[in-house]
Amino acid sequence: MAYGNLATIYYEQRQLDMAIHCYNQAILCDSRFVEAYNNMGNALKDAGRVEEAINCFQSCLVLQANHPQALTNLGNIYMEWNMISTAASFYKAAIAVTSGLSSPLNNLAVIYKQQGSYADAIACYTEVLRIDPTAADALVNRGNTFKEFGRVAEAIQDYIQAVTIRPNMAEAHANLASAYKDSGHQEAAIASYKQALCLRPDFPEVTCNLLHTLQSVCDWENRDTMFREVEEIIRRQIKMSLLPSVQPFHAIAYPIDPLLALEISRKYAVQCSLIASRFGLPPFVHPPPLPVKAEGKHGRLRVGYVSSDFGNHPLSHLMGSVFGMHDRDNVEVFCYALSQNDGTEWRQRIQAEAEHFIDVSAMTSDVIAKMINEDKIQVLINLNGYTKGARNEIFAMQPAPIQVSYMGFPGTTGASYIDYLVTDEFVSPTRYAHIYSEKLVHLPHCYFVNDYKQEKL
């Protein structure tokens, strides 16, 4: 026991070699000293000796199969190794044997959220808050999940509760501002962004989001100064291989170098690829390209549209008739809806007129990608790009042999897995093809659809 206590002191002082030595001595004195194995595993992991750490955690579990900390620690290692399913299994095992440990719940929630299982993530954070109702971090994390799930009002309530518990929590103020902005409360958003910056002046995301929000209310005070500051932030982040704080969709409206905008999109595309890799899917096999019609045989081109905007959204207002107007003798259309049915006439119309309409909103991204591949889609069209509700990791998994960006995002995706951008000569002039990662497909006159069959204008 004395060696164990001494080891803990060394560990807290970050004298890892001495801590490991003392834990070893403790185990030599008592080979069934369960906590010594677990604690030495932590010290070994921190010292970069991860394989030895795994052996320690496993030895701990041999002595006590339901040791929640050892299970969680193994989950953390596999999470860092991007072995997500293995990590999740350890977190679930830890949760099954204890009702008072928050860390496996928090980490499992992160996995669920990355996989698009928002309801499961929310359930995990709710359990964390049952354990500790004052856990402001859990409130912020649950709020973030609510927000991504489209439940913005609930997100706002979580953020408000978080800043009530921890008034100096800059992240909570920033996320509250973002939720206010999404719900149309621009002035409240500006106030919360400014409060976040008061608490943390060096907060790049907030600086960039504040600029975008000020733009939306035509507040041009200090405009040039703020744009220069934001461009400096972007360049610094790209140089440091960080995800830029300016989103690609916002960058379109900024007076920045187009090549810088391309770099922003590339960074976001890499992030989508990283998310896709966490599902651990093997590469999809695509059938060899076949002629649509050959030797008297009749085949149809299978085209898939993926969007979160099949409903009361400008995209559906503009494109509502398109999905049902394809020539069914030559084209078979599949619509994959990333959002739940909002009950509007636009959703009902697209659902009724498209040859195949599948609500995949409750599915994880890997399941959606598998479905698309199993449907043998030959051309997959991303109608979101970098807009709200997008699940671009589906495209990063490359379930179809040809993948196209169209309509929702007129800029470059910066993604190696998007082959073409459907646009026009005015929006994307041929002479500027070098600022796009995709090959440009120019429609005559204008790429923008305006549905002439709309009943309500």
Automatic annotation (TrEMBL):
EC class (word): transferase
SUPFAM superfamilies attached to this UniProt entry: TPR-like
Pfam families: Glyco_transf_41, TPR_11, TPR_8
Start and stop residues of the TPR repeats: 34-67, 102-135, 136-169, 170-203
GO biological process: protein O-linked glycosylation
Taxonomic superkingdom: Eukaryota
Entry similarity comment: Belongs to the glycosyltransferase 41 family. O-GlcNAc transferase subfamily.
Protein name: protein O-GlcNAc transferase
Species this protein is from: Triticum turgidum subsp. durum (Durum wheat)
Lineage of the species this protein comes from: Eukaryota, Viridiplantae, Streptophyta, Embryophyta, Tracheophyta
